[in-house]
Amino acid sequence: MSTSDPPRILSVEDNPDTRLLLEHTLQGEYDVTVVPNVEEALDHLATNSFDLLLLDINLSEKDGGVELLHTIRSREHIDDIPAVAVTAFAMPGDRDDFLQEGFDEYVGKPFTRDRLVDTIEDALPAG
Predict the structure, then answer these.
(1) How far apart are the C-alpha atoms of 18 and 51, rounded to whole Å?
(2) Are 81 and 62 in contact (CB under 8 A)?
(3) Dihedrals φ, ψ of 84, to 5°?
(4) Which Gene Ontology biological process is one annotated for this entry (predicted)?
(5) Per-residue model confidence as pLDDT tens digits over 19-67
């Protein structure tokens, strides 16, 4: 990847309104792919490379963002991609819980564009 290529982000978000918000918020600065479920996320990860994952915690299927991250971390070629938990869980201690589950960062909903971008930049590998 040349230094002029924007970071590639895969976002897994089941809410259509939030998917549109993420695409609109991040377009231009990042190369963003937004998918609605775990199955599509794993399909994209099998055939594309990404610099960062934005994973919604409460997906409307049996496997949520934490389970998806565990699956990703168990696969050799994708186990080191930084991951940000995106969630409406905003209780004290939640950030630590998500970091213990293997996430690199956490952003609560609702989020501002600046907060989301700052969190992404914190989680992206330097260089």
Answers:
(1) 21
(2) no
(3) -115, 125
(4) phosphorelay signal transduction system
(5) 999 999 999 999 999 999 999 999 999 999 999 999 999 987 677 899 9
DSSP state of 79: T
Q: Which run of H or E residues covers position 34?
A: strand 31-35
Pairing verdict, β 52-56 and 31-35: unpaired
Residue 45 to residue 42: CA distance in whole angstroms: 5
> Could you please report the per-residue DSSP string of 35-62?
ESSHHHHHHHHHH---SEEEEES--SSS
pLDDT digits (tens, 9 = 90+) for 70-103: 999 999 888 899 999 998 877 778 889 999 999 9
